[in-house]
Design brief:
The complex is a heterodimer of chains A (91) and B (614).
Chain A (H helix, E strand, L loop, with lengths): L1 E5 L13 E5 L3 H11 L1 H7 L10 E5 L2 E2 L2 H5 L8 E6 L5
Parallel strand pairs in A: 1-5
Antiparallel strand pairs in A: 1-2, 3-4, 3-5
Chain B lengths: L16 E8 L4 E8 L3 H5 L1 H9 L14 E5 L13 E11 L5 E8 L3 H8 L3 E5 L6 E6 L8 E6 L8 H11 L3 E5 L2 H4 L9 E3 L2 H6 L5 E3 L4 H7 L2 E7 L10 H12 L21 H5 L23 H6 L2 E6 L9 E7 L5 E7 L2 H6 L9 H14 L3 H17 L14 H12 L10 H8 L7 E2 L2 E2 L27 H5 L4 H11 L5 H5 L9 H12 L5 H21 L28 H21 L4
Parallel strand pairs in B: 1-6, 7-12
Antiparallel strand pairs in B: 1-2, 3-4, 3-6, 4-5, 7-8, 9-10, 9-12, 10-11, 13-14, 14-15, 16-17
Classes of the chains: A alpha+beta (91), B alpha+beta (614).
């Protein structure tokens, strides 16, 4: 199924200028793996050595923030949107 | 700027003027001047105009009564641009200084509604010199729409010694239409506290009676106000009727309230918000990339109880509240949970900085204790960053030198003693500690773990991961945006870091020129659109970027002209040491930093030439 992925725009320089992708995958793990395979420089920026998202990212599924539990039980549907948002902020 | 100036699009800077008031506190006299703008700096105000104005006004002693304190607005302060609430205090700081001892130009900014009232009064800028003969209140007021703005000096004796909120509530009873800038006891004790803040009142504070000020914290601007014997400034005028917003502004304000830029600061419970700066705890601590114990993270999970979700499990309610007419609601206000399970007594406003620096970084991991300390520091009117970082220095010093302790042997995690010391500090009884980290460490000849640059204490981001700190003009996170780069981008080469500091990091000062809050997260395009819609000024992104660059360079130039040499652009020696528990690349070695410094200084010199500023 087709899943739309948005990553922080600051990472576009690690992804050939893009920060929005549409990928044919079945799971969240595949989604992250595919985008990192296509853009190897993204891998260390998004994922830790175990292949999980760094803890300073939040994930939004169709604009709704997912908890850790929600993320591990996530079922994707065709045309869903996944957004990865940076959590750190200062001020 | 007057309203008729907003009616025609594409105006040049010299078609604008602004109102500057020279306030001689010694003579209790005021002189008004309408100044014709000469350039974009004049039109924008904020630190762009402030730095220009301060250029030839350097002093040897920040507390010299002849020293100048500028209070001004940015172009969008007090307008309908959402978050356009900023008031700026600018001066040669009692805290920031060169190794030679000369005070350095600095600013501090705050929101609340005080700036909006100044805008209603037509006060674009006030320049304070001299010293009031007695503790004073300056009331700025206007009795009718067609009346001139007036200044009167009132006896402030009855405010002396009061906590910040007590001062504000007392003034509110007396001047119900007004908003206020006040100092706390720390500012009154300026000779022994160099990092006192200026507190600005908020709508919520005046309505609820709760201590919910916003603070101009950095650089000791409250100490400076105290040195001038000015305890409060009252901006007393009725609110203006709302005018119809230009259509372009409506969509920009929607972007501020609901757009991408402010999302990280919005409420996590309302769908897509990031939860604000408090979320840094959950983001940074798992990598041990968050300050604990004077910026040396422990390798454990001691700070976990301070995460917001854990706090909400306890007998507390956290509410996301906002400044005047702001849709971001970035304030994370903590209340006791009452018997109905709702918000009861207000406890403290928790941002990441005060929570980290007045809890984890001084070895306190209990939320109840943290709430007490954060609120205590706010109410005494001190900058929580400088205060917290100086306390952590004291604790580290006492740990290393148990035979010659200072501050009654204050130690990590000792809540009762910390509370006592903070209380005495704010009351002016801890002169050694109140000098701040730089002066204290020089006095003790123990500088390697004194976490500051140029006398301004580090905010709650590890210096081991941020070699950009020395080039911040006014505090390490609000004027040089390099503190998250290693975490997010993981680049460790010199070219990258030179560019990060000299091309991008300083761009964050834009909002201190414009008058809006950094949490709005606006793009340059959006800012230009908003300015055009509200003022008619012809401005585009390249011109705005040029203005930001000139302002940054002017700040750097002021440093160099007032005693700073290459030796001043350094970091504490221990911030270059490897800290294995930090799960980020180790790269800020002494050798890396030496190379970076060489190249940044050369590049800044080139930029001054390119901008005809030499």
């Amino acid at each position: 199924m087709l899943i739309h992925l948005k990553i922080p725009s600051r990472f576009s320089r690690f992804a050939h200028g893009d920060h929005e992708f549409s990928l044919h995958v079945e799971t969240m793990e595949q989604l992250l793996e595919d985008v990192c395979q296509q853009n190897p420089e993204l891998r260390s920026r998004l994922l830790n050595e175990a292949g999980s998202l760094w803890p300073y990212f939040a994930v939004l599924h169709n604009s709704q923030r997912l908890s850790c539990e929600g993320l591990s039980n996530l079922n994707l549907s065709h045309e869903d949107t996944i957004e990865i948002m940076t959590l750190v902020s200062g001020g | 700027m007057s309203e008729d100036q907003a009616s025609v699009a594409s105006k040049s800077p010299w078609e604008f003027s602004f109102q500057r008031f020279y306030v001689d506190l010694s003579a209790a006299g005021v002189r008004a001047e309408e100044v014709a703008c000469q350039d974009y700096e004049d039109v924008f105000g904020g630190i762009a105009r402030g730095f220009k104005f301060l250029k030839d006004l350097a002093v040897e002693d920040a507390y010299d009564p002849r020293a100048t304190l500028v209070m001004n607005l940015g172009l969008l302060s007090g307008t309908d641009f959402m978050t356009g609430l900023r008031t700026y205090f600018q001066a040669y700081s009692p805290l920031k200084r060169a190794l030679s001892g000369q005070p350095s130009a600095m600013w501090s900014a705050g929101s609340g509604k005080f700036g909006t009232k100044l805008r209603y009064l037509g006060v674009d800028e006030a320049v304070f010199t001299g010293r009031c003969a007695r503790p004073s209140i300056l009331r700025i007021y206007r009795t009718g729409d067609d009346e001139a703005t007036r200044f009167e000096f009132l006896d402030g004796t009855e405010l002396a010694g009061l906590l910040v909120n007590d001062k504000i509530q007392k003034l509110h009873q007396r001047f119900p239409d007004a908003h206020f800038a006040v100092i706390g006891p720390a500012g009154e004790n300026y000779q022994t506290v160099r990092f006192a803040a200026v507190a600005l009142s908020t709508e919520n504070q005046l309505k609820s009676g709760d201590p919910k000020s916003r603070y101009c914290g950095r650089g000791g601007m409250g100490s400076l106000l105290g040195s001038k014997n000015l305890l409060a400034i009252v901006a007393d005028v009725a609110d203006q009727r709302a005018t119809k917003q230009p259509a372009e502004l409506k969509s920009i304000n929607q972007a501020v309230a609901r757009g991408e830029g402010s999302r990280r600061f919005r409420d996590q419970g309302k769908g897509d918000g990031g939860g604000g700066t408090w979320a840094n705890y959950e983001a940074l601590n798992p990598l041990h990339a968050m300050p604990e114990m004077n910026f040396v993270p422990t390798n454990g999970d001691a700070s976990v109880p301070l995460y917001r979700p854990h706090v909400e499990e306890g007998p507390y309610v956290v509410k996301d509240e906002s400044c005047f007419r702001c849709g971001i609601s970035c304030h994370k206000n903590v209340y006791d949970r009452n018997q109905e399970g709702k918000a009861g007594a207000f406890r403290a406003k928790l941002d990441y900085e005060p929570l980290n620096l007045l809890a984890s970084n001084i070895g306190i991991f209990d939320i109840e204790q943290a709430l007490e300390l954060v609120e205590q520091v706010d109410q005494l009117g001190m900058d929580s960053i400088s205060c917290g970082t100086t306390l952590s220095y004291v604790m580290e010093y006492n740990k290393r030198y148990p035979d010659k302790p200072i501050a009654d042997g204050l130690s990590y995690g000792d809540y009762a003693k910390t509370r006592e010391i903070i209380g005495r500090l704010g009351e002016g009884e801890m002169g050694e500690v109140g000098q701040g980290t730089m002066r204290l460490s020089e006095e003790l000849d123990a500088t390697s773990f004194a976490m500051h640059c140029k006398g301004v204490e580090f905010p709650a981001y590890l210096p081991q991961t941020n070699p950009g700190y020395p080039w911040a003009l006014a505090g390490g996170h609000m004027s040089m945006r390099t503190m998250f780069l290693l975490l997010l981008e993981r680049e460790t080469d010199l070219d990258y870091w030179v560019s990060a500091i000299t091309d991008k990091g300083y761009m964050t000062i834009r909002d201190d020129i414009v008058g809006i809050c950094k949490f709005a997260g606006m793009t340059h395009d959006q800012v230009c659109d908003g300015i055009q819609a509200l003022t008619g000024l012809e401005i585009d992104v390249p011109k705005l970027e040029d203005l930001i660059t000139r302002t940054f360079l002017r700040g750097y130039q002021l440093e160099r002209e007032n005693g700073f040499t290459d030796d001043d652009y350094d970091m504490p020696a221990e911030s270059h040491e490897e800290c294995p528990q930090i799960e980020l690349p180790y790269f800020n070695t002494p050798e890396f930093f030496a190379g970076l410094k060489r190249r940044v200084q050369v590049r800044l010199g080139e930029m001054l030439v390119e901008n005809d500023m030499v």
